[in-house]
Amino acid sequence: MPSHNLRIERLGRVFGAEDGPDWMVSHAAYPTPLLLAPDHLRVFLVSRDSENRGSVGWIDVDPENPVHVLAVSPEPCLLPGESGTFSDRGISIGCVLPHQGALWMYYMGWNKSADVPFRNAIGLAVDASGTGERFVPAFEGPLIDRSRFDPFTLSYPFVTPPGPEGGRWHMLYGTSRGGGTQEDEMQHTLTEAWSRDGVDWHPTGRDVLELSKGEFGLSRPWIVRMDEQDHLFHAIRRKQYSIGHAVRDPGSGEWSRRSVDILGPGSDAWEDRANCYPALIHAGGRMLMFYNGNGYGRTGFGVGEVLQ
């Protein structure tokens, strides 16, 4: 499977929970970069507390040297929800985007369940200041939950707002097509939804990428545009995670796979078995990809440069 002439040059490990304040007990997962200014690159992340619940924090890095950490959030900027809400057992970030002077964070909330390990839904939190310091859930309930389109569980939303000419909002997210408790029974694929305002969403039930042999799930989609073509990076779950790459046909709008392991395990211990949860941004004059290694973020995250 060709990689569409793309390759990732590793720049190094950036951050782990052991490098942060006391509230970061374990993990630095789902790195989510956002340029707050040309010289201010903030990477949101999820770290777990002593009860294994994920909260959102951030680090600031140098856009010219993204392995150089400049600042770390002294406390979380988004906490799990109140008991009984869809995120009471933790949060995982999908994406963060500017909107009308504010920052909108689309995220996945976690609940425990009796017969399966967990259930998830998709929510929205807003930082009205636009600084990325404190997010507040827009609603106690989720934007998208289980339905006839997504009967089992949902994951990691990536949202594209309308362009200057207007139009609809678009979301890619993960959905399970099986309800078993074993990982190979979940059959987690990528699907899409549309919205007029970024709040009220209409799932389609249409899977945009199908699972291949030996894959249990596709998740954490991230779309970037390079050389006038849309590129989709995503996590692939097999016995170990890897990072996949697909491109969109400009005529049909359909996605086609180009690689199922565009990075591959590294030589350093933190990523010598797996890579997952990619997120990309154009910063410092180059396209950067932040990603997790072994243990879904337990060993922290690193960064690479996308080369063509």
Task: Describe what this molecule looks like in 3D.
By secondary structure, this protein is mainly β. The protein has a single domain (7-307), classed as Glycosyl hydrolase domain, family 43 (Tachylectin-2, Chain A, 5 Propeller), CATH 2.115.10.20. It is built from one helix and 20 strands. It has a four-stranded antiparallel beta sheet with strand order 1-20-19-18, with no helix packed on it. A four-stranded antiparallel beta sheet has the order 2-3-4-5, with no helix packed on it.
SSE inventory with pairings:
Blueprint: E1 7-15, E2 26-37, E3 40-48, E4 54-62, E5 65-72, E6 91-99, E7 102-112, E8 118-127, E9 136-137, E10 154-160, E11 169-176, H1 183-186, E12 188-195, E13 201-209, E14 217-226, E15 229-237, E16 241-248, E17 255-259, E18 276-283, E19 286-292, E20 301-307
Antiparallel strand pairs: 1-20, 2-3, 3-4, 4-5, 6-7, 7-8, 8-9, 10-11, 11-12, 12-13, 14-15, 15-16, 16-17, 18-19, 19-20
Q: Which structural traits does this protein have?
A:
308 residues; mainly beta; Tachylectin-2, Chain A; four-stranded antiparallel sheet; 1 helix; 20 strands
Provide a quick synopsis of the model.
By secondary structure, the protein is an all-beta fold.
In total, the number of domains comes to 1
CATH topology call: Tachylectin-2, Chain A
Q: What is the name of the CATH architecture?
A: 5 Propeller
| Class inferred from helices and paired strands | mainly beta
- Fraction of residues in β-strands: over 45%
Largest sheet: 4 strands, antiparallel
Strand order of the largest sheet: 1-20-19-18
CATH class: Mainly Beta
CATH superfamily: Glycosyl hydrolase domain, family 43
Number of helices: 1
Question: Quick one: how many beta strands?
Answer: 20
Q: What is the helix fraction of residues, given as a range?
A: under 10%
